[in-house]
């Protein structure tokens, strides 16, 4: 069983079997919606690097479903009128991220309910689960994800999806604090840039859980 | 007003005044206790880099107090017998961090109530506040920190202290999600190594809040 | 200013003005949907007493809106397939309430997303807000209500709607713990029976907030 | 197996075995401290009715320990200076309860850390657990109780202790929402008066869990 420890792929010693058990495990796919992934100038919060993983994600999710592992899709949805963000207490990223990337033209439309920006671009199959009151960075806050996982008696969560150094990292912190075993799939997450992706995965590997390739996880699930 | 944007110190545009207002602001100092900082072989979770900031932290806290800004000291405290960690559901770091740094000899004693490992090494003054049910990585979980901040009507939190890429970063995510304005003091936090410190501060600057030097924050507070 | 103290309507002394200020106040209307209120044999969780307050509620909400007080409608919504209730860890009421009232024929359909049972029977106006991940008894858990109220800078909540001795009482406990001022409108809530309604309102009046008639609250708001 | 359904003791049908399994069960004893129970004029929040259950509680706890069921003692502890209550956002009960019982002379001292008012009057044995950041009415908020129970893999909670219609009822709502099975021990809780005790136990029996006599629970545990 192999995982990335501080960026280097290594054979792990014994004692990590609970991370790669299919039992009590769910895949959590974060924010793979048009608001991040649309390849149009009005995309309100573009994460173009994540477009490359749409098909690989679909493929991995199909394999997981075939093995009986449930898929939970997370999406950010904000109320019309901005009451829970731009006209309430604005998200920090709206203020800080433009200092680095410059103005984000259509950012006010990000995640607004009833717009195309909340449509998933990855496949959502019959039987998949959706959590959609994410309003900031964590998949857990303020959502019913922890409640759902407890009802499902989940103990291990597998993260894939968008913004390795932001929502994926934050969700990994939360999942770890809530005593779930955390696996982040190195080939199925994307972040701000190479440096931040690499750094976020190192942080996960040090403090939060395992960083694995999806092929290795599938292989472990199948044995 | 200057802050570090993705590692580069820059003059910020207008619009960040609420981050450097003394009003409704608290300093939150994370895990500056002997369990991380004791310079002895039995230190259960050593973060030796943070020893360098003990005196600078004391000095900054004195200046903050003089300006009427409250100081909240956070410490991890675990129950005797290990029921809420090693004999319950063990913290992820206990399993993953040794993959990188090797065996941590006395880790089982980390944060146990009634031991010297929970003693603060920084000064705690009359009137300072203490939050001490932190049991994993975030200062917010499972603690009464958010409850306390709401009672104090705090809107901006200033983080200093231990493990830039771990507890400080996690607490910054949580504070940001809970709609507090977040400032992390670049010269008054320490992490696993140079690379992780730098990366964690970049993540904060992109998504979570401002990364500032303490001298600049004090200067802003004084004007 | 008058309120019910342990069942008796009395003039209150000074010091309760923040409870009846329109400023930073929201009305929270709980579970006025067909799943409780439909007058058909397949109603999955009937609370017939609450049918009497549909029109009075609409009237009060119109008056509140005219005064600029926002209305937040709460509804329970459970996922198809029962993963977060009957096929997960079943709600306690599903097991205990039938001991008192007998079998509830269509209870499995209660609150299932996509069914008519989640339709509101009270008016929802443009500009009203909806919170709909309530899955057990409290309007706060596991929902984004607290997050929403903080973004709106709400300090006082006015409860009306269904099951005085259950969801209204539970939500009043939670709101009080979260440091909101709580008002329950005696004429605009209904419970299991006269005895439980009376008892729940007494409990609110002792420990949690004010029990008022809606006409008195409107009068206070208008002065 | 017998329990009180809306005030009447009855034989339950099959299907409630998980409520009376010793496995994954903990006893949670609420606020049996001098701040409520001291028989002196300066008792800051007197609940004199609960003095009668101190010895019965001790006896029940001894029997539970002998059967391997852990005891968790909850106590309210507030910071000196009143920052998290009277000088922050005051607890609702401080404002409403005096409307019914009149002025409470020493209420400002209630639960202040370092005073005698936080001393337990019931026995705390080696191996018992303590949760002590309760600051309002629920044993769960803002405390680490849920975190502790999850680490202990507890699924059923048995409540005893103080204020049937207040902290015990609130904690029962929270435990039920968090998907624990709830048992309240009718003979080992006390409330404001006979009427409120009776009402709160009826509410528990309808919506939240089982109301049992401690002797019946012990008998079930022993079979």
Write a concise synopsis of the structure shown.
The first copy, chain A, contains 7 helices and 8 strands, in the order E-E-E-H-H-E-H-E-H-E-H-E-H-E-H.
Number of domains of chain A: 1
Mean pLDDT of chain A: 97
The order of strands across the largest sheet of chain A is 5-4-3-6-7-8
Largest interface: C-D, 46 and 46 residues
Q: State the end-to-end CA separation of chain A.
A: 11 Å
The largest sheet of chain A is: 6 strands, parallel
**Count of individual helical segments of chain A:** 7
The fourth-level CATH homologous superfamily of chain A is Isochorismatase-like
**In oligomeric terms, what are we looking at?**
homotetramer
Q: What is the approximate shape of chain A? A: globular
Please give the radius of gyration of chain A in angstroms.
17 Å
Order of helices and strands of chain A: EEEHHEHEHEHEHEH
CATH architecture of chain A: 3-Layer(aba) Sandwich
Description of the structure:
With 223 residues, chain A is an alpha/beta fold. The first copy, chain A, has one domain: 3-Layer(aba) Sandwich (Rossmann fold), CATH 3.40.50.850. Chain A is 32% helix and 21% strand. Chain A has a six-stranded parallel sheet, sandwiched between helices. Chain A has a two-stranded antiparallel ribbon with strand order 1-2. In chain A, β1 and β2 form a beta hairpin. The radius of gyration of chain A is 17 Å and the shape is globular. The first copy, chain A, starts with a strand and ends with a helix. The relative contact order of chain A is 0.21. The model of chain A has no long low-confidence stretch (mean pLDDT 97). Chains in contact: A-B, A-C, A-D, B-C, B-D, C-D. At the C-D interface, α3, α5 and α6 of C face α3, α5 and α6 of D. Chains A, B, C, D: This is Isochorismatase family protein. Chains A, B, C, D: Pfam families: Isochorismatase (PF00857). Chains A, B, C, D: One of its GO terms (molecular function) is hydrolase activity. Chains A, B, C, D: It comes from Parvibaculum sedimenti.
